[in-house]
Amino acid sequence: MCGIVGYVGGQSALDVVIAGLRRLEYRGYDSAGVAVLADGGLAAAKKAGKLVNLEKELVERPLPAGVTGIGHTRWATHGAPTDANAHPHLDNAGRVAVVHNGIIENFAALRAELAGRGHDLGSETDTEVVSHLLAEAFSSSGDLAESMRQVCRRLEGAFTLVAVHADEPDVVVGARRNSPLVVGVGQGESFLASDVAAFIAHTRSAIELGQDQVVELRRDGVTVTDFAGDPAEVRSYHIDWDASAAEKGGYDYFMLKEIAEQPKAVADTLLGRIDAQGALTMDELRIPQSVLREADKVVIVACGTAFHAGLIAKYAIEHWTRLPCEVELASEFRYRDPILDRRTLVIAISQSGETMDTLMALRHAREQGAKVLAVCNTNGSTIPRESDAVLYTHAGPEVAVASTKAFLTQLVACYLLALYLGQRRGTKWGDEIRAVIKDLSQIAGEVERVLETMEPVRALARSLADKGTVLFLGRHVGYPVALEGALKLKELAYMHAEGFAAGELKHGPIALIEEDLPVVVVVPSPRGRSVLHDKIVSNIQEIRARGARTIVIAEEGDEAVVPYADHLIRIPATPTLLQPLVATVPLQVFACELATARGNEVDQPRNLAKSVTVE
Ligand code: M6R
Fold this sequence. Notes:
With 615 residues, this protein is an alpha/beta fold. Helices cover 36% and strands 23% of the residues. The strands form 4 sheets. Strands 3-2-4-1-10-9-11-14 form an 8-stranded antiparallel β-sheet, with helices on one face.
């Protein structure tokens, strides 16, 4: 939930850390702080509000120059976003500085214990106990990595911790449990960060840290152990995107760039998964074929936008494989004692690979004997590492808090998985699979076409900037698209937005319709399941008769909707199941433009962070 950076090397630690924090600000932006080791001591600065506040503070009160430093950008859990609660937290002597992501569950007991020993804790955070415990441990061990191991053994909860000590000026120490931390290995310099984006401008060589590991960072290398001090195995990897992928590239917002990148993201996610004959090749899915053949149920767990991708995947999985498929909010999953066994295939969908609710759901599923397959966009993150198999989406880094290109690629990955299951289980013939793949291969071009026609959608969004409520309706796969449209509007425009299954209208929501209320309707294709189409046309008539202003998203050539559409947004004709890939795009553009028109921060909506690493 927070962003962490650590650096030791030959450059100005402050410059490297601040630049890294800028790239991690999507993770949290309610306060920020830095600490550098210099002149035999430790100097720190921290400020409530966005990183820019800290940068101003550093201009007014510069810190001494040093080559070892740490930084933090916060999304508050314990304690309001104030200067005092911002990280880093120091011990009473001001020799240790600590930054933290996660929650230390036993902090109250530790705090009482420290107070009993005369420590003065000035903040409301759980983090501060760590700086005091580290200072105590260091006074006897004289070794920061060893002190970190001792302290971690006492902590409960989820945490990434990064610390420096004035008596070890060439060392940064990090630790992780259930919270992300990656190491960057440069020439004569080393980095630690919550996400590789923080150091991608300096090195593309990274090391994954495992669960319950401590890393000691020096200029000339890193040492990794477990919490007991035994050497740990590490996995090095090459980051296959460069710094420009994590920059705005001329767009006003990352979200706009990421919306525009969707055709490429969709094409990249198909790449290498279709052979020259147009058939599916999924050798990368290292899961025993028997698991796919013998599964008797699929359960999808995910949160937010990824959950909506799961809802759409259900239609494809059940239609193409005839396997029952449940979709469950990851945050609810383990608390209802779900029925799982070794024949259950659980699919965990997550852009970040770090969402704690999804991680806990997959752990629960594995404990019950189920096999877990992750659909993930972040190489080496915790969710794929803890799953039995992974299918990566290739969206590239998604920085804007509102998920866009990750959603479309999650859909593509889920369609591929559904087809592959159908292939392995013999519920789909090869030529049927090839026909769907052919349609999928054309989707990137169709998304491109949608993007070229978005100006009227932007104009419409601007004209609705003073509205209080927008409703979204859909049927079949259009229902999760409606939910996704409403979620985008809530998180970006801070408007009351609700998505409904159009068939549910008459069971309650129709009472909400009043004069000039904007209602977006996602219309299924009149071809194929025409019964769906006819029913939704009736729904549009029903709401319009009651005064709604109808905003209709319908495929090219669908003339039946024209008389009832106050605003008509055309999308290319696609097979019914694939329509979400094109129908979602106008809703993303709509929400982004409405947020802009209302003067909101598009990339960093209030109260939100990109990855939710606490439950
Ligand atoms: O990283 P994940 O895909 O696991 O994240 C899940 C949700 O937190 C995420 O999709 C969230 O709902 C987005 N901000 C929506 O735009």
